[in-house]
Design goal:
Blueprint lengths: L28 E5 L3 H12 L3 E3 L9 E4 L4 H13 L3 E4 L12 E5 L2 E5 L6 H14 L4 H10 L1 H7 L3 H12 L12 H10 L8 E7 L9 H9 L2 E4 L5 H4 L7 E4 L11 E7 L1
Parallel strand pairs: 1-2, 1-3, 3-4, 7-10, 8-9, 8-10
Antiparallel strand pairs: 5-6
């Protein structure tokens, strides 16, 4: 997501401009108002999600709407009518009038990557997607399916949830048995499930930060934040730094930090 800061620098509060989510729309009706290429693109998107594109007359059946009209005054008027009926509305090329925006999509079904700029630049989102298209293998979808199908076997082999997560993390990290960027990883899932080893010995690492800006993190520091099972930090660590950690990582005050590794990967964050 793009920064909420007007100058493009990182938001040290850790806030994001929009709530990222995937909305299951299959079987629903979504209003699309307009004609021409913009409206046609919205209708294709709606249909791709398994929903039915309908006109304004059926707004009482819908919760979402797209307005793709060239005339700004007409678009604002249609938006107002739809808002009055309780719909969330996207107005093409007018981000200030949008309740939601649509990202550029990279599809490796069931893996879906959405790249959005909050309406700032659809072209930028598209070209970031195109770069990723060239990097991410087509086999990512097969890997996701194989992991889903093996979920029960993994749970039986590793009943403890933390142990399962560490095993999956170890397998999927760079160079791991199931490295997502390796074409053959999907074919290795069955063998890995026979012995889903965890990530080895416990780890304890310490990072001393000299900046509140997450863009100043080194690659290693950013990777550790994304991998750590538990984070021990002093009160001066910026929320934007902590936002780079895994959402399910345990958070603890610095004075509770262990003196030696105990279980999983613990990361200590100090201010320099």
């Amino acid at each position: 997501m793009q920064s909420a800061c007007p100058n493009g620098s990182a938001d040290v509060t850790g806030r994001i401009a929009s709530l990222p989510l995937f909305h299951k729309a299959a079987g629903t009706r979504i209003v699309v108002v307009g004609d021409g290429p913009m409206a046609d693109a919205k209708r294709r998107l709606v249909e791709r999600a398994g929903a039915m594109a309908v006109g304004e007359a059926e707004a009482h059946h819908a919760t979402l709407a797209f307005v793709a009209l060239e005339d700004a005054g007409e678009a604002a008027a249609v938006r107002q009518r739809l808002k009055a009926k309780g719909l969330l509305v996207n107005v093409a090329d007018k981000p200030d009038l949008c309740d939601f925006t649509t990202p550029s999509i990279l599809d490796r079904d069931p893996l879906l990557i959405a790249i959005g700029t909050g309406g700032a630049s659809a072209g930028l989102a598209k070209h970031v997607r195109l770069r990723l298209e060239a990097i991410l293998p087509q086999t990512l979808g097969a890997l996701a399916h194989a992991l889903a199908e093996g979920r029960d076997r993994l749970r039986a082999a590793l009943p403890d949830g933390d142990a399962r997560r560490r095993a999956v993390d170890a397998a999927l990290r760079r160079g791991g048995m199931l490295d997502p960027l390796e074409d053959a990883s999907a074919e290795r899932v069955t063998g890995w499930l026979a012995n889903p080893a965890t990530d080895g010995p416990a780890r304890l690492e310490t990072v001393t930060l000299t900046s509140d800006d997450p863009e100043d993190l080194t690659l290693r520091q950013a990777r550790w934040l994304g991998e750590a099972d538990a984070i021990y930090h002093d009160a001066g660590i910026a929320p934007a730094i902590l936002a780079r950690a895994r959402a399910d990582a345990q958070r603890h005050p610095l004075d509770e930090a262990p003196a030696a590794p105990s279980e999983g990967f613990a990361l200590i964050l100090r201010r320099g």
